[in-house]
Amino acid sequence: MATRWSLAVRNGLDVVDVETPASTAAVALHGAQVLSFAPRGEADWLWVSERARWAPGAALRGGIPLCFPWFGPHPGRPELPAHGFARTRVWQLEDAREVTGDVQLRLALASDEQTLALFPHPFQARLTVTIGAGLALAFEVANPGPSAFSCEIALHSYFAVSEIAGVTIEGLAGCDYTDKVDGGGRRREGQAPLRIAGEVDRVYDSDGPVTLIDAPAGRRLRIAGTNAGSTVLWNPAPAKAAKLSDVAPEAYRRFVCVESGAIGERRLTVPAGATERLTASVTRC
User: Fold this and answer.
1) Does residue 121 have an active-site annotation?
2) What is the mean pLDDT of residues 36-52?
């Protein structure tokens, strides 16, 4: 099977379609968002909502949106878009190449007048996506300005599952976390493997690795990060999902978000003239 990539228009957005001997994938220039990753002969590891808004400037539900330069509501200006602006901007495809049978895409976004009105710091961001037997993402943010800035980053991965009730998550036992469903209270995870029963919105003080076990599908995925001091776990459950216009009824049963990030007190500080890097990888285990 050949290694190749091509740029196409899908639902009005530019998308890079990738084929390697081991897998296929799709990455939108809108938000530098990975939309699909499927090993040969397997179902897609990622979930995209059938009601996703495919439109310039809109947040597209599913795949791996990029949250930058803040996560969730802006801490001081709640009227600003949740999760920052990186996921709704068009990124430039800087490079596409074959690396020992894998395909590596490099996408870039730089500050401009619009971003400076929302985040008053010059920056140069780059996302490198490596597609092969597994999926790897490396997010870099450079500070060309005269003073340091802090930012939050999250690789907001939506993983497809056969049934949320059958999912088990390992690797977070004993970790402290912020429970957003409980108003931001601090909790500590127990020692038993984690199962999802009801709405979950937690930011763990952990960079993993985490193992996502979908027993009905016979799938085990290992999610690991570097320089990512936070792991986010999210599923809206029925009541919250009913309030989301871009999530179909019962669709919450088909995905779970397990995200590598640098959030809250674990956000990154980028000194003047420096670059910070956060990575996440997803592999079969």
Assistant:
1) no
2) 97
